[in-house]
């Protein structure tokens, strides 16, 4: 007996070991500890709780005593206890409910960095730790490059300079290989002093013989240090005494010629040239060595201090001239009668044009470039490697500037991640585009999560920053136990969830009962918006997954679903392919247990009445106009379904679903 829905209540007496065979999410099981007996009370149609009355003599006969309490367990593992009372020969107790069901809201958490570097952190929040899956981290290799061009100025014969090529992969360059450009040193002259006949006066008297001449010259590509300047003089003279000469100071300033003299640093005090010094190189020593910015442009200023005259030609004035157009010419005098006498000169820093030039590195790389004229440049591939630490030049009597063009390259080496106290890494190198997957246990997660990225290997500080693509994902499945409505022919859900955090790819999973043959309606709404039907769902057997898309923190999602089902008498089935909403009924199912007295009752639907066909271990439901069916008292249709090799009547049900059992105490 039952206080309500007695017609749909079933009671089965069995042993505790077999009770689970009869238990599903519409059942409660009760049993005896001492005698090894159990009662399975089930209602697959009506799910609310009720009082149940069993004959006192039957219970006492089965258990050997009259219990004071009844203990029960549902299919989901939840337990309950209720007192037992005797009334008019009946044992009466309450069953609190039959059909709570668990629905699942699922969503995806995904954080990414493209790319990440060593020390990158990715953060996200998680409101329900129990809902989270393990974290899957995809690491993708990335090649990172940067140019590290290096210039070495004023390299003479046998000179060596340090070089550094960083990274974890062989370097490249302008044409796929590192290259060098070698330029021979040159003199560039310019002046603001008086010019005459294509040359200018460096020091001495002007043409009017009443003003000392000052001048400037610009030199490019200065060396690291300088201790002298050399004047290369070739001269002849007439009517000039051997003691007639010129005295001047030399200044050095880092600027372009500007017509202002005696600037910067005076590097030579009262330098002189006398005809008796003869032709050839005149080296003017600096008072002390000067440290220069290699490769920079400097101006040398000549400031005349005095001239000397002796002998009968006392009307002569002396001036040092250097041609504006290379090569430089003329050290000369000019007399009042217009007779000129020339003294060709050339002024330069250090060595002359380079010859038989070669450049080598200590990793075995070497190229030969031949002879250079002043200022000439040549370029060639120079496949230097990461092991090189210096380059050396061969230049003959000249000097050159060397520019190394190299693109350093770093690959993804030993990438890894840390989350809380957990860490995982990939040993070795990930080539560009190659992906490896690491897994972090869900126990590493917390309400506030920070994923730290490590990548690099053994690299120098000046190498391109190592990089790795990172995508970390996990699902967040929030289980809710809900009361669902049902009757003989339908199973309905109306559930909602308020999201604590923003989520991508949110989903709702509803495990319908095994006898649901079609989905009638799937609707959803957000917050207080209108209900909207959706076809964005999938069915896997009788498990329905509704895709909700992206949701925002604080947003509430409502979903309601209506499914149609059949009633199985004296047997059990599992629906393997239900009918989607809006389609004609066409459902496949598996017969888990069947006997001579088994049949399926099918309710009316929008598709019309239904008939049943048979097969060996599967059945199929389709609408049919056939009249060869017998009507049940409730107006439904039913037909017996048999399959070859059916078990004998009374065969126990399949154990394909989850089962649990409990006991009287």
Automatic annotation (TrEMBL):
Q: Where is this region: Disordered?
A: 158-178, 602-665
Biased composition annotated in UniProt, kind: Low complexity: 602-636, 646-665
Q: Tell me where on the tree of life, at the top rank, the source sits.
A: Archaea
Protein's name in the database: Uncharacterized protein
């Amino acid at each position: 007996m039952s206080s309500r829905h007695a017609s749909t209540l079933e009671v089965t007496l069995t042993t505790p070991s077999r009770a689970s065979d009869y238990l599903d999410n519409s059942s409660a099981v009760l049993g005896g500890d001492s005698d090894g007996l159990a009662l399975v009370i089930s209602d697959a149609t009506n799910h609310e709780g009720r009082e149940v009355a069993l004959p006192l003599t039957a219970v006492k006969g089965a258990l050997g005593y009259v219990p004071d309490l009844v203990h029960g367990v549902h299919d989901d593992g939840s337990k309950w206890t209720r007192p037992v009372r005797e009334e008019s020969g009946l044992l009466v107790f309450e069953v609190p409910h039959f059909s709570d069901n668990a629905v699942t809201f699922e969503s995806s958490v995904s954080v990414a960095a493209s790319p990440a570097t060593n020390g990158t952190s990715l953060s996200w929040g998680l409101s329900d730790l129990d809902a989270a899956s393990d974290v899957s981290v995809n690491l993708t290799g990335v090649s990172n490059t940067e140019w590290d061009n290096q210039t070495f100025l004023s390299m003479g014969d046998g000179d060596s300079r340090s070089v550094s090529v960083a990274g974890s992969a062989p370097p490249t360059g302008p044409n796929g290989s590192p290259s060098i450009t070698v330029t021979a040193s040159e003199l560039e002259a310019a002046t603001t002093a008086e010019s005459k006949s294509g040359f200018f006066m460096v020091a001495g008297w002007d043409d009017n013989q009443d003003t000392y001449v000052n001048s400037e010259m610009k030199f490019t590509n200065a060396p690291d240090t300088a201790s002298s300047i050399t004047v290369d003089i070739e001269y002849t003279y007439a009517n000039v005494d051997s003691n007639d000469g010129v005295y001047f100071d030399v200044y050095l300033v880092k600027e372009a010629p500007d017509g202002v003299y005696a600037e910067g640093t005076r590097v030579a005090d009262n330098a002189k040239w006398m005809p008796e010094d003869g032709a050839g190189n005149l080296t003017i020593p600096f008072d002390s060595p000067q440290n220069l910015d290699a490769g920079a442009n400097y101006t040398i200023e000549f400031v005349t201090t005095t001239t000397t005259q002796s002998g009968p030609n006392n009307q002569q004035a002396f001036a040092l001239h250097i041609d504006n157009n290379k090569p430089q010419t003329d050290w000369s005098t000019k007399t009042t009668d217009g007779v000129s006498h020339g003294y060709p000169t050339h002024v330069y820093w250090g060595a002359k044009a380079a010859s038989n030039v070669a450049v080598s590195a200590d990793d075995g790389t070497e190229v030969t470039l031949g002879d250079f004229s002043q200022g000439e440049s040549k370029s060639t591939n120079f496949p230097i490697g990461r092991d090189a630490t210096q380059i050396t030049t061969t230049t003959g009597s000249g000097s050159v500037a060397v520019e190394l063009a190299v693109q350093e390259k770093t690959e993804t080496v030993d990438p890894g991640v840390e989350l809380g106290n957990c860490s995982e890494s990939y040993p070795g190198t990930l080539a560009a585009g190659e992906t490896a997957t690491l897994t972090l246990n869900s126990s590493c997660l917390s309400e506030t999560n920070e994923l730290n990225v490590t990548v690099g290997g053994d690299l120098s500080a000046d190498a391109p920053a190592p990089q790795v693509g990172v995508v970390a994902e996990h699902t967040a499945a929030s289980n809710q136990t809900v009361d669902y409505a049902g009757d003989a022919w339908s199973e309905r859900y109306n559930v909602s969830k308020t999201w604590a955090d923003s989520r991508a790819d949110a989903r709702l999973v509803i495990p319908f009962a095994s006898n649901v043959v079609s989905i009638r309606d799937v609707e959803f709404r957000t917050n207080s918006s209108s209900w909207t039907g959706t076809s964005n769902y999938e069915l896997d057997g009788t498990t329905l997954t509704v895709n909700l898309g992206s949701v925002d923190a604080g947003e509430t999602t409502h979903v309601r679903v209506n499914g149609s089902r059949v009633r199985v008498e004296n047997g059990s089935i599992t629906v393997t392919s239900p009918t989607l909403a809006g389609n004609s009924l066409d459902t496949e199912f598996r017969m888990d247990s069947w006997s001579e007295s088994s049949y399926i009752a099918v309710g009316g639907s929008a598709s019309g009445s239904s008939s049943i066909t048979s097969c060996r271990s599967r059945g199929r439901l389709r609408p049919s106009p056939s009249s060869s069916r017998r009507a049940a008292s409730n107006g439904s249709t039913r037909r017996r379904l048999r399959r070859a090799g059916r078990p004998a009547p009374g065969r126990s049900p399949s154990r394909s679903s989850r089962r649990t059992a409990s006991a009287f105490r």
